[in-house]
Write a structure and sequence with these properties.
heterodimer; A: alpha+beta; eight-stranded mixed beta sheet; 2 helices; 8 strands; B: alpha/beta; two-stranded antiparallel ribbon; hydrogen ion transport (chain B); F-ATPase gamma subunit (chain B); ATP_synth_F1_gsu (chain B); chloroplast (chain B)
Chain lengths: 133, 301
Amino acid sequence: MTLNLCVLTPNRIVWDSEVKEIILSTNSGQIGVLPNHAPIATAVDIGILRIRFNDQWLTMALMGGFARIGNNEITVLVNDAEKGSDIDPQEAQQTLEIAQANLRKAEGKRQIIEANLALRRARTRVEAVNAIS
Amino acid sequence: MKLVAAAKVRRAQEAVVNARPFSETLVEVLYNINEQLQNDDVDIPLTKVRPVKKVGLVVVTGDRGLCGGFNNSIIKKAEARIRELKALGLDYTVISVGKKGNLYFLRRPYIPVDKYFEGTNLPTAKEAQAIADDVFSLFVSEEVDKVELLYTKFVSLVKSDPVIHTLLPLSPKGEICDVNGICVDAANDEFFRLTTREGKLTVERDVIRTQTSDFSPILQFEQDPVQILDALLPLYLNSQILRALQESLASELAARMSAMSNATDNAVELKKNLSQIYNRQRQAKITGEILEIVAGADALT
């Protein structure tokens, strides 16, 4: 019995195949999903999705969204998703540094909101790359 | 140029088709959550309706020219809307997407512009996310009270319509409202297909009603429904913006196809006319020379 995982972004399907287990970051903590999990619906935070596929763990950086876990069918809708293997480590590190600098420079409620979001995303990408290496 | 644009329309169409699984699932989930929340008062920042003092206008234009009246018509619509807002005494700010729009607003410093975004050949979720971030922070920090999206809706290969849609505040049911208050249900999805009919390229528009199946009754919400709605609505915002970008791109390509096709036809006709004039001149000169020679020969004998 395997889980069927579908990760969708607004413009493409990032992942659509069977997996053995996933670990998802939600607003209320991380949840692990094994086959025959009870159906739940949850919001997904900006964070890492770990997928156990062929006895290997793969990471994917998710930029916030929603997940629905049904009868061995998981549908994850996110604003953007990147596979850990697709991210360039140096570029991710640079983006993180730029985001941190922007947050320090930010003034006013609006810039702070934007800078915080950008920082969380950059951090997630760096974590996704580091988690597999 | 026409065939290049035709090939790109096909790619744009594929992009729209790829976006469908996401928006279908999203709409399904939105509907189901709304049913659960029917009687509760939903208080989420993105749906908050405030008295409007300042309006944000997101104007989507193209990157390049040679597309007929495409860029002009959307810019004219934007100017008309700005005049309307001024007449109502409302303040406004513009978010310009696309090089042509950027150039236009840069040359007019009297129009307040919040940010300039460059367009791309194929709009991806990243670009939509960047615009969504900007719009989100403007709305949530209460700098603007309403955000409207101005883009060109694709009607057919020869016709496209600049439209204005209210982007924020979102209605929790996922409806998209026109400025006149005409709302379209999110489950009525439209998409276009580039096909051929009688050997000519045409576009068909289909409307599909997304089937909203019931959630399994034992579905538990990990967080309370309001928090989940809070996570869903930014996704919806993103997909709306992406949809607008894709439609705008498709309209631009269609306008370019038809403008280039007209240009080609005109060029062919011009070539034909010039060839005829050239040949006539050439023949007239030859006839003249022959007449001179004959006259000369006649004079000698």
